[in-house]
Design brief:
The chain has ten helices and six strands; from the N terminus they run ααααααββαββαααββ. It has 286 residues and is α/β, with parallel strands linked by helices. The strands form two sheets. It has a three-stranded mixed β-sheet, with helices on one face. The protein has a three-stranded mixed β-sheet with strand order 5-4-6. Strand 2, helix 7 and strand 3 form a beta-alpha-beta unit. This is Baseplate J-like central domain-containing protein. InterPro entries: Baseplate_assembly_J_pred (IPR014507), Baseplate_J_M (IPR058531).
Length: 286
């Protein structure tokens, strides 16, 4: 199973940045320093807006916050979960991976992970998945599975084209790659097939909290589709609990899912896609 970088905790080396908290800390430290070294109580001065000392403390705090932010950016540029653009390209080179034409940062990150996981033993699922993903940025998702107890295995792919169905040309390109002598394990019989999309229609009733703007409701469908795009893929089940969790954003009071009537269980070589999403605004609730 490919490592999901989005589930990793925030690295401890990244600094938490709160300029207002820095102002308070620096003002407190300055008051103590003035009292200890000069016997002067400047408590009232540092709290006065526009007072030169208060202005200087605020300026220094924001400068420190900007410096911490710059340090964080440097650290992130060396972490796979955060690196982007040219920084990610440089990081990929360390793993022997080169960005494909039109390949997004998210796609490149996934291929880097697959390259590392699949390099240990030729013939693993990750090995074939990496090779298939490396053919073209048009390959959106890959599922690798054995069709029985023998050497036969299938590589199912989805494309970035609308509907997810790969073209015959793309299937041929992937097949040529994964069945080549440089890639295919000697004992494997590999075939490339088109993955399938399972359409899921959603019908739900939504109540908002009394003070929630209606714009929150207006954005629910887009947010739900984006959630499936980022979290879904081959074998991802669309459970009713998951739908409710994604619709229960801040400001939503209650969600009742009317369809699907049961959890949608997706097999390992299929991926769910939303058809129609019908959300009904039912009013306000506490």
């Amino acid at each position: 199973m490919m490592v999901d970088l989005t589930t990793l905790p925030t690295p401890q080396m990244l600094q938490s940045i709160d300029a207002e908290a820095m102002i308070t800390t620096m003002a407190t430290a300055f008051v103590a320093w003035a009292q200890d070294n000069y016997g002067v109580d400047v408590t009232g001065i540092v709290s006065l807006e526009g007072e030169p000392i208060a202005v200087q403390i605020e300026f220094q705090a924001y400068q420190r916050a900007a410096l911490y932010a710059a340090f964080n950016d440097v650290l992130k540029s060396n972490l796979l979960a955060f690196a982007a653009g040219n920084d990610l390209d440089a990081l990929a080179a360390d793993h022997g991976v080169t960005r494909l034409t039109d390949e997004t940062d998210a796609q490149l990150r996934e291929r880097i992970v697959l390259a590392d996981q699949g390099s240990s033993t030729a013939g693993s699922e990750e090995w074939y998945a990496y090779q298939a993903r490396s053919v073209s940025a048009e390959v959106e998702a890959v599922a690798v599975y054995r069709t029985g107890s023998g050497p036969e295995m299938e590589v199912a792919i989805l494309s970035t084209a609308e509907g997810g169905t790969p073209s015959a040309a793309l299937l041929a390109q992937v097949s040529a790659k994964v069945t080549s002598t440089a890639v295919r394990c000697v004992n494997d019989i590999v075939s490339v097939v088109s993955g399938t999309k399972t359409t899921v229609d959603v019908v739900a009733d939504v109540w908002l909290l009394p003070d929630t703007p209606t714009a929150v409701f207006d954005g629910l469908e887009e947010g739900l589709r984006s959630a499936l795009d980022s979290e879904g893929g081959f074998g991802f089940d669309v459970n009713r609990a998951w739908l409710i969790a994604k619709l229960m954003v801040s400001g939503v009071a209650k969600v009742v899912v009317n369809a699907p009537a049961a959890d949608m269980v997706i097999d390992s070589h299929s991926a769910a896609t939303f058809g129609t999403i019908s959300l009904t605004y039912k009013g306000r609730s506490k």
